[in-house]
Design goal:
The complex is a heterodimer of chains A (513) and B (341). Chain A is α/β, with parallel strands linked by helices and 513 residues long. Chain A is 34% helix and 25% strand. Chain B has a single domain, classed as ABC transporter involved in vitamin B12 uptake, BtuC. Classes of the chains: A alpha/beta (513), B mainly alpha (341).
Chain lengths: 513, 341
């Protein structure tokens, strides 16, 4: 491994111990934000050549710790040692130059610049006239990609790349700084199974080169697959560190929530009623074709499939976001034409979208405004005026029922944790009293406790006769919650499995067929 | 992410809502501050009081009433995340149209001799109607063709100015009826401004129209998925902004007792400035009419104060520019703080 001159210089100047056992040694960190202690006396050690997972519910403090390591926040108290030397990071750039690189959940690449330009920005190789030497830049990028086994054209503009490939570029960029520590924040949340496998190969490769990786995830199976060690946080406190080979899934959940989750998937057998929604040969040109299925009252239909299989597109078309090119949608046997979300709502459908931030939350508005917005289409309005008292009472009751943790309804939704935001959005739809509820990744990126509550809620809705369609990338969730599972692959339905016959393997086979 | 901790940290017990100052309060303090500075400077340099002069204050507020009427519409457009550059030109165009049917028969060079001495409601209605039409065109362009509001209203700004000049080949329209001129006299423009402000303050805060306006500005995708007909709503908002610009055009003509094609030049920028100074965020989703009213008065006090201190008009514009930029800088700073807090 060759160090770039700047890193070398920094390491020399700092007097670091090149072979210190711990790449990072964090001791007694405290970080306060107005009104809350985000981290309290937290310690953490990252060994050379290991993958160290940070686990904890949303709000446990792992993101704050990560941001301290990446130079985004400065701690109020405590010490950070990099390879045995005290450091005090002042900015993300500072961290990068010290050999700590962070790969954000929201990728930070410039879409209209090429892959190579993105990687070497600020450090472009120059020719003797002081202009950027594109030939040299292409060569060093190719060399970097070779080392990481990434197959990408360095000259392509980033906007043409898939999320997975952008992530590869981010990783390559981090490695190009000769970083010793790589911080990854839920890197697999938008990747397909195959892309995850490739990512893990790269991570293992980096690990074997002695790089330490801090890996934040909510996915338990990833922890067992990729992490050597993990640390658990809860409510801003450090709970403990263990080797991942020493523990079971239940142990970790117990550490994270501090309580036993007795039943992860409270699926009940509820009476299944008549067919409510019947979809025949639904097609959206170029996206999905000939999708047909029925959903009955009280039934939960799971939709599985890899990212890009068209699952979410089917949901969007059902709800009128992208009207179908052909095919029919029938509710209670009557064909309906759904060409806008508004008509879908009038047909008593509801749609919890996949992306909370982009298509769900009105981030700068408060909880009340977020919750009431859909139901105001046809209720709680008299002569154009909103019946403030009634709607507020209804929203208060809903947030009590869903156990939304918020100081009050006037709190901006962006100040809530992911799980609580999701509950507010679910509340938005439940207020409309839907008969058909479409949930797209209802528990993505939310903590274990809130997840279980949402599962319980979905079960309860089914018991009350709501027809539920639930899209999920998490196999245990689909298998655990659904009465039937429809599997999609490249825009087509490859099979519909009954609960009794559905297994992880069968679903995967259909999804990858 | 640290904000999540805040929500979790407070636990399940819901504490009572923190008492927060309304966001307009700080803007109001700025207004008081500026006025007091003028007061002090007045005693030092001019030897008289700035505030204890009802006549000056009346003139001041009269001067900005028209801007205020426009700004009430512009505020709503900006809350949706859009912008309206056409309002100044629409003022000119509607002033011309309404004045052309407000002429008295005693006036020898009436544009339409058969349409003289009409009741004031006709020119007022025509002015508002033409403004509404301009706003509808803006809204349709933005909603149907998806071109940025900046471009759509820029086009309207240029064209409407052209129409005002074409309409009488550049000739002013004078000799307006007493009845028409009445709404421009005395304190009436201010009354119109305040009535309009109250109506749309109520509309934004207490009606579905208002809730949808904020929702679209906060997140247009989420608003759409929540069942809001975004296109239809945007058309409504731009139509209202056009209508208010039309009303401002009528008031402008009545105040001047004449209409000229050059009326309302740069009013759109003053209205946007008043809106932004009043705390409406250009990124959408945030803003109130009360803030805009205070922002409008700040603009008036600034101008009036400069005149009072006999500051050169050149400096006035320079400082006005600085204040607009400062208002946006403060807005950006506030947004940042909000994320950290």
């Amino acid at each position: 491994m060759t160090l770039s001159p700047t890193t070398m210089a920094a390491v020399r100047a700092s007097g670091a111990v090149p072979n210190a056992e711990y790449l990072l040694n964090v001791e007694g960190i405290r970080k306060e934000f107005p009104g809350v202690v985000a981290l309290d006396d937290v310690s953490f050690r990252l060994k050379r050549g290991t993958v160290h997972a940070l686990m904890g519910e949303n709000g446990a403090g792992k993101s704050t710790l990560m941001k301290i390591l990446a130079g985004i926040y400065t701690p109020d108290k405590g010490e950070v040692q990099l390879k045995g030397v005290d450091i005090r990071l002042k900015s993300p750039l500072d961290a990068l130059e010290n050999g700590i690189a962070m790969i954000h959940q929201e990728l930070n690449l410039m879409p209209f610049m090429t892959v190579a330009e993105n990687i070497w920005i600020r450090r472009e190789p120059k020719n003797r006239f002081g202009f950027v030497d594109h030939g040299e830049m292409r060569r060093i990028t190719a060399r970097l990609f070779d080392r990481l086994n990434i197959k990408l054209d360095p000259e392509i503009e980033v906007r043409h790349l898939s999320v997975a490939n952008r992530q590869m570029v981010e990783i390559a960029k981090a490695v190009s700084y000769e970083s010793d520590v790589l911080i990854m924040d839920e890197p697999t949340s938008a990747l397909t199974e195959r892309e995850v496998a490739h990512l893990f190969e790269i991570i293992r490769d980096l690990r074997s080169q002695g790089i330490g990786i801090v890996y934040i995830t909510h996915k338990m199976n990833e922890l067992f697959e990729i992490a050597d060690e993990f640390s658990v946080f809860r409510d801003g406190k450090y709970i403990g560190t263990h080797a991942s080979s020493d523990v079971t899934r239940d142990d970790i959940i117990r550490m994270m929530v501090g309580r036993e989750i007795t039943q992860m998937f409270p699926k009940e057998d509820v009476p299944i009623g008549d067919v409510v929604l019947s979809v025949k040969n639904l097609t959206l040109n170029g996206v999905f074709r000939d999708v047909s299925f029925d959903v009955r009252a009280g039934e939960i239909l799971g939709i599985a499939g890899l990212v890009g299989s068209g699952r979410s597109n089917v949901a969007e078309t059902l709800f009128g976001v992208t009207p179908a090119s052909s095919g029919t949608i029938a509710i209670d046997g009557k064909t309906v034409s759904i060409d806008t979300p508004n008509t879908a709502i009038r047909n008593r459908m509801a749609f919890l979208t996949e992306d909370r931030k982009d298509t769900g939350c009105l981030l700068i508005l408060d909880v009340l405004e977020n919750m009431q917005i859909a139901v105001l289409q046809d209720r709680f309005v008299k002569g154009g005026f909103v019946a403030e008292k009634d709607i507020t009472a209804a929203c208060e009751e809903m947030s009590r029922k869903l156990r939304v943790k918020t100081p009050n309804l006037q709190e901006r939704i962006e100040n809530l944790s992911g799980g609580n935001q999701q509950k507010v959005l679910i509340g938005r739809w439940l207020l409309t009293n839907p008969r058909i509820l479409i949930l797209d990744e209802p528990t993505r990126g939310i903590d274990v406790g809130a997840k279980a509550e949402i599962h319980r809620l979905v079960t309860e809705l089914a018991r009350n006769g709501v027809a539920v369609i639930m899209i999920s990338s998490e196999m245990p969730e689909v298998l655990g919650m659904s009465d039937r599972i429809m599997v999609m692959h490249e825009g087509r339905v490859t099979g519909i499995l009954d609960r009794a016959e559905a297994t992880q393997i069968k679903v995967m086979e259909l999804a990858a067929s | 992410m640290e904000t999540n901790v805040a929500a979790q940290g407070t636990g399940s017990a819901l504490p009572a809502a923190k008492r927060r100052m309304p966001p307009e309060f700080s803007i109001f303090l700025v207004l008081i501050g500026i006025a007091l500075v003028y007061e002090v400077l007045g005693w030092i340099f001019v030897g008289q009081s700035f505030l204890l002069n009802p006549q000056r204050l009346t003139i001041m507020i009269l001067q900005v009433a028209v801007i205020g009427i426009i700004a009430v519409g512009v505020t709503q457009v900006i809350i949706t995340g859009g912008i309206d550059l056409s309002s100044g030109s629409v003022v000119g165009m509607t002033a011309m149209f309404s004045a052309s049917v407000a002429q008295a028969s005693s006036w020898p060079r009436a544009l339409y001799p058969s349409l003289t001495d009409l009741p004031a409601i006709v020119p007022i209605g025509l002015g508002i109607g033409v403004g509404l039409l301009a706003g509808l065109i803006n809204g349709q362009l933005i909603a149907r063709t998806k071109i940025p509001p900046f471009i759509a209203t820029l086009g309207m700004m240029v064209s409407a100015r052209g129409i005002s000049k074409w309409y009488t080949k550049g000739q002013p329209v004078s000799g307006l009826t007493e009845q028409f001129n009445f709404i421009g006299t005395g304190i009436w423009p201010v009354v119109v401004f305040l009535v309009v402000a109250v109506i749309f303050h109520v509309a934004l805060r207490y009606t579905r129209y208002g809730k949808f306006t904020y929702a679209i500005g906060a997140n247009v995708q989420a608003a759409r998925v929540s069942g809001i007909n975004v296109e239809a709503h945007l058309i409504k908002v731009y139509a209202i902004a056009g209508m208010l610009a039309g009303l401002a055009g009528v008031v402008t003509a009545a105040r001047a007792q004449t209409a000229q094609a050059g009326m309302g030049v740069m009013y759109e920028l003053d209205a946007i400035a008043a809106t932004v100074i009043g705390g409406t965020s250009l990124t959408g989703g945030v803003g109130r009419i009360t803030g805009t009213v205070i922002g409008t008065i700040i603009l008036g006090v600034m101008t009036s104060g400069f005149t009072f201190l006999r500051v050169d008009a050149y400096y006035q514009e320079i400082v006005k520019g600085l204040i607009i930029v400062a208002a946006v800088v403060i807005d950006v700073y506030r947004q940042k703080n909000r994320k950290k807090a």
